[in-house]
From TrEMBL:
This is DEAD/DEAH box helicase. GO terms for molecular function: ATP binding; DNA binding; helicase activity; hydrolase activity. CDD domains: DEXHc_RE (cd17926), PLDc_N_DEXD_a (cd09179). Residues 524-686 form the Helicase C-terminal domain. Keywords: ATP-binding, Helicase, Hydrolase, Nucleotide-binding. It comes from Crassaminicella thermophila. Transmembrane segments: none annotated. It comes from the Bacteria. Residues 270-443 form the Helicase ATP-binding domain. Coiled coil: none annotated.
């Protein structure tokens, strides 16, 4: 969180600018300290100073307020007659200015301030001028807002902290930022030096009185209930980063009042707690896995009085950003760690947070770090995690990725609390890696299937259309040669079963590319998509055969992948004159955000042509019709792809999925094959049948896929036992 992230003007004028929304709220939400001299002390000043400070309170910040008493002529005369009565008269003048709130907004704001005073977050001192026993009013108006990184904004001018000054009078403030240039930095330092001198009662001719009784008066008069930290959102439409809870305001994770978890989500969290906060959330894609995970973080945070460090790990950059967006709703302002993080100083932030927690700095006992798998593996992150001696929670999204040898060794006893999230924790052809995950994270706390989610209307129903395409003769020849070479590169694994060697895995990748990029798919796509050329909310998924490496935090797209997506883009955009855009790792976070917004409107953008997005956790609920050209034999991948198409959205009664099934040859040629030729076909055929069965069994039109499956099985002479033991080659 940095003040430098905000566009700050040099000057604000009250009848031109919305000073509260444009200045106070955004700055204070990123601040760690707020020093303010407000002129006259009053309940109105308290109300106005409350605007935006919920964010500061969440950051564990501190507010120092200096104000002058509003003394009547009688007050001044009484002080002149008896100097010993000064404090009593000033206190009476201060209390006189504490008026009853006029409406619910004022009531909530004064209650908020009273709670902050009660908890020592807001401190108030009274200032006045004094020269040769003559007393006057300190009437300077200035402020210094600082963030945790040392950035500071100073402002001064004619504006009082009062509703009249903010809304009616023509008032002005001048603003200076410490990072802009030497002149402004000197201005900021001068303002802060003056404030510090006043606060510590060192400024010539200005006296300071610390009135404990005044603070207690504020508490007694205005502290009524749990503070409403959503008051800025309710009054100005600006979301505060600190949320209301059932007990008192919190500095850790909180389930917001505007998000209601379903019963199955709460039951999962309950069981996780019973298992000593260890376990697995096995939930179908699109069923609220992230919110359930954040709800679990909030439960543990509350249990530990917000003394908790949370590390959330995701495989991809874009998935990290989605977690960040959702986490903010749960009162979490995370440190964001990956190679292209918008927080360029994330390493420093992480180090500072670890140090603050170790030193038990007030309000800094809770912090959250969200990163990619690759960043989690890095030396600097592992060193920082090892320094954390307090409560530490590890949350791993798409946890099946943590089963690889390169990363599962980092799963150790440093993490007292553990949570794995995955729609499919079982690793494809890796029993050892799967077992390691279960041994570390523990038992499943929930198993919420896609079938159950559709039945309970958490996901939308769908129609499934398997679309048969075949390899060309050249493609089939290359496929057969690769299959033969793979059979010569089998080795015995630790469990005694045969598996592919490293070179065999490279061959498998090449063979998968032959299937994924089958030339006939383009011609068939042209035929199938024409009836939809005037529709919107279409996804064409090209996919890639690349598997993400543990040391990468985004998927790599090579020339082969781009050739296919470029051909599809030309087909839809130029031949069919559709409004389309590519959606790949080449587009940065901001570009993706714009594309998603345009796609959701359905006017300027009809179709997204994507690579890998359905595997990266990108949330695009509006997708209604999906053409999946990418063939995969990995259940984890195709189950995820289907789930992302089934997210509910307004006006979306059901989804349609066109799954391009790739067979070695046209079905009418199968009957003339020799036994040897049929054996070479069988692996690809079996894998495609398994996917069709999985997609088709809970679709609205299951008979369409089953008719095709029965025809293929009969032609190749396959029975149920054959399909139970799918070959890898």
């Amino acid at each position: 969180m940095s003040l430098q992230d905000i566009d700050i003007k040099d000057e604000y004028r009250s009848l031109i600018d919305n000073v509260v929304k444009d200045f106070y709220i955004p700055l204070l939400q990123k601040a760690s300290e707020y020093k303010r001299a407000v002129g006259f002390f009053s309940s109105s000043a308290l109300i106005e100073i409350s605007k935006g400070i919920a964010g500061l309170a969440k950051n564990g910040g501190k507010i120092l307020m200096v104000a002058s008493p509003y003394l009547s002529d009688d007050d001044v005369e009484a002080i002149r007659k008896g100097y010993e009565l000064r404090d009593k008269i000033i206190r009476r003048a201060l209390v006189r200015e504490l008026n009853e709130p006029k409406d619910l907004y004022e009531k909530d704001r004064l209650n908020l301030l009273a709670n902050l005073v009660s908890d020592g977050i807001l401190d108030i001192k009274i200032a006045f001028t004094e020269d040769k026993n003559k007393m006057g009013m300190y009437h300077e108006k200035m402020g210094i807002i600082s963030d945790a990184l040392g950035n500071k904004v100073a402002f001064s001018g004619s504006m009082n902290e009062s509703a009249t000054a903010m809304m009616i009078n023509y008032e002005t403030i001048d603003v200076f930022c410490s990072w802009k240039n030497q002149f402004e930095n000197e201005k900021v330092n001068a303002k802060e030096s003056t404030f510090t001198s006043i606060w510590t009662d060192c400024e010539p001719n200005i006296r300071i009185i610390d009135f404990p009784n005044l603070k207690q008066e504020i508490i007694d008069r205005y502290k009524k209930s749990t503070p409403n930290f959503n008051i800025d959102e309710q009054e100005f439409g600006e979301r505060s980063v600190v949320l209301e809870t059932k007990t008192k305001y919190r500095l850790g994770a909180v389930i917001p009042t505007n998000i209601k978890l379903y019963d199955y989500q709460i039951e999962a969290i309950d069981k996780w707690e019973k298992q000593d906060f260890k376990g697995i959330f096995d939930m179908a894609t699109g069923t609220g896995k992230t919110f359930t995970g954040l709800g679990a973080v909030a439960r543990l945070s509350e249990k530990l009085d917000d003394r908790l460090a949370v590390v959330i790990v995701c495989p991809y950059q874009h998935l990290v950003e989605q977690w960040v967006e959702d986490a903010k709703n749960f009162n979490i302002m995370p440190i964001i760690g990956y190679s292209n993080s918008p927080q360029k100083d994330w390493k420093k932030r992480l180090s500072t947070s670890v140090r603050n927690q170790k030193l038990k700095v007030r309000g800094r006992d809770f912090f959250t770090f969200i990163c990619t798998n690759a960043t989690f593996k890095s030396k600097i992150v592992q060193e920082q995690i090892s320094k954390i001696k307090n409560n530490l929670l590890l949350v791993v999204d798409e946890a099946h990725n943590f089963g690889t040898e390169g990363i599962r060794n980092l799963l150790d006893d440093r993490f007292t609390y553990r949570l794995a999230l995955s729609a499919t924790l079982e690793r494809h052809n890796d029993e050892e890696g799967t077992q390691k995950l279960y041994n570390y994270f523990g038992e499943k706390c929930i198993e919420y299937s896609l079938e159950q989610a559709i039945k309970e209307k958490k996901l939308t129903p769908y129609k499934y259309y398997p679309v048969v395409t075949t390899l060309t003769e050249d493609e089939r020849e290359i496929y057969s040669k690769l299959s033969y070479e793979m059979s010569r590169n089998l080795i015995k694994g630790k469990n005694g079963k045969l598996k592919l060697s490293k070179y065999g895995e490279i061959l498998a990748l090449k063979r998968a590319r032959i299937v994924a990029a089958a030339k006939e798919k383009i011609d068939v796509l042209r035929e199938k998509i024409v009836p939809y050329k005037n529709d919107s909310y279409i996804l064409v998924y090209c996919g890639i055969a690349n598997v993400i490496d543990d040391n990468q935090d985004y998927s790599i797209v090579d020339e082969c992948d781009l050739r296919q997506i470029d051909v599809v883009t030309n087909l839809l955009g130029n031949e069919l004159n559709m409004k389309v855009s590519q959606f790949t790792s080449k587009e940065d976070i901001e570009e993706r955000k714009i594309l998603k917004e345009q796609f959701a409107k359905g006017e300027q953008l009809q179709a997204l042509i994507a690579i890998k997005c359905l595997d990266e956790g990108v949330n695009i609920p509006k997708i209604k019709t999906a053409f999946i050209l990418a063939s995969t034999t990995n259940p984890k991948e195709y189950i995820q792809r289907r789930g992302r198409v089934l997210r509910r959205a307004e006006g979306k009664d059901f989804a349609e999925i066109y799954d391009f099934i790739t067979l070695p040859r046209p079905l009418d040629e199968v009957s003339s094959l020799t036994i040897e030729e049929m054996k070479r076909d069988i692996s690809l055929v079996q894998n495609e049948i398994v996917r069709m069965e999985e997609f088709g069994r809970i679709s609205m039109n299951a008979m369409d896929s089953y008719s095709l499956i029965w025809e293929i099985r009969e032609l190749y002479g396959l029975n149920d036992r054959d399909l139970e033991f799918i070959q890898d080659i």
